[in-house]
Amino acid sequence: MYRPQNKTTKFEETIVGESPQIKAVIAQSKKIAKGASFTTLITGESGTGKELFARLLHNFSPISNQPFVDINCGAIPETLLESELFGYEKGAFTGAHLRKQGLFELANGGTIFLDEIGNTTTNFQMKLLKAVENKKFRRIGGLNEVQISTRIVAATNVNMEEAVKNGKFREDLYYRLNVFQIRIPPLRERGDDIFVLANYFIDQFNKEYDRQVRGLTPSAKALSAEYHWPGNVRQLKNAIERAVLVETDDWIEDVHLSLDSNRNNGSHKKTEIKPQKEEPKILNHFNRFDIPDEGISLEEIEKDIILSAIDKAEGNLSKAARLLRMTRGKFRYRIDRLDISLQELVA
Fold it and tell me: How far is CA 254 from CA 74, 134, 225, 329, in A?
């Protein structure tokens, strides 16, 4: 298990793992980190922890006391991405009443992390190339070049060689970013790290939600070992959080993980459909709801029930949870999942 020593780090920035595969990547990253000017490309599937390794590069570098600035390039429209990174001058466009510094300037002397760089347009890549190549750029609407001394770390889950070959990513920018490359292995290649991570997340969510889950049962461990984990560590974390919150057992069973068994080991075997026995229809012994012909959202019904319980409990969430026969932790989880706002709770 790895935690930066003598460095200020947040709880969620911890890299957890004991396998030779992840230890090798950590050792490689610490070596690269010593060169504060080294441009680095981090590759790996979605959910493998690319941002954590970008922060590791910064934390173990000579510039660790300088800013670390990150941006998800794939989640922002091209025009907004340009102004976010490079900034703009007063009057550059409608609404630009003041000069704004971009993230490159804000990260000056430190590290800028360009996440999902493989999902940007070639037009934007051309504008980014100069900043990466010469460490200088112009703000939108500006005439003077701004010089920066910023370490650039980029990350992607895209196969960059294929993207370059298909004309979706500029070859010159790729080689500028790929001075050093760190490949993070997918969870399925990390052996027993699955169980190390699962126990770590169980401890984390036990503390967060005041639960007493003891661990995984043998059947849950067997399923976890066999599963392909297409969403990697992020998927495992979400599965453990859901199991800790929703289930009442002391141990997490395989069914509690809510995994799609058809995706085990990346296989897509044809599922045999067996004829099912016709079950007798139960027409009584349930509370009948009048469902309109056009249908109704199940989430809206659940939301109304939760709000009704809160109203009956006069705003006391613990009492409302007891009315619905669930723990306060489960109740809070459902409130968050259904995006019930504070205004609705007090209305």
Answer: 35, 53, 11, 21
**What are the extents of the domains in the chain?**
11-185, 188-263, 298-346
Closest among 201, 260, 267, 262 to 236, alpha carbons compared = 201
Helix (H, G, I), strand (E, B) or coil at 181: strand
Model confidence at 13, pLDDT cuts 50, 70, 90, reads low
Across residues 196-207, what is the average pLDDT? 95
Do the beta carbons of residue 68 and residue 55 sit within 8 Å?
yes
Task: Indicate the residue type of 236.
Answer: L
Distance CA 135, CA 170 (A): 18
Q: Is the pLDDT of residue 340 over 90?
A: no
Q: Inform me whether the pLDDT recorded for 311 exceeds 60.
A: yes
Looking at domain 188-263, which CATH architecture does it have?
Orthogonal Bundle (1.10)
Ramachandran area for residue 129 (φ above 0: left; ψ -120 to 50: alpha; else beta): alpha
Give the separation between CA 273 and CA 106, rounded to whole angstroms.
Answer: 58
**What gap in Å lies between CA 199 and CA 135, rounded to an integer?**
43
Angle at 280 between CA 277 and CA 286, to 5 degrees: 135
Q: Phi-psi category of 10—alpha, beta or left, where left has phi over 0 and alpha has psi -120 to 50?
A: beta
Average confidence (pLDDT) over 312-319: 83
Domain 298-346 has CATH 1.10.10: yes
What does the block give as tokens for 238?
């979400």
Beta-strand relationship, 145-147 and 136-138: antiparallel
Q: Does residue 278 have a pLDDT over 50?
A: no
Per the structure block, which two tokens stand in for 98? Answer: 């003041």
**Cα 307 from Cα 327, distance rounded (Å):** 16
Strand partners, 112: 69, 152
CB neighbourhood size of 271 (10 A): 8
> Which CATH code fits 11-185?
3.40.50.300
CA proximity to 260, closest of 218, 231, 298: 231
Q: What is the mean pLDDT of residues 106-123?
A: 94
β-pairing, 251-252 with 215-216? Answer: parallel
pLDDT at 200: 96
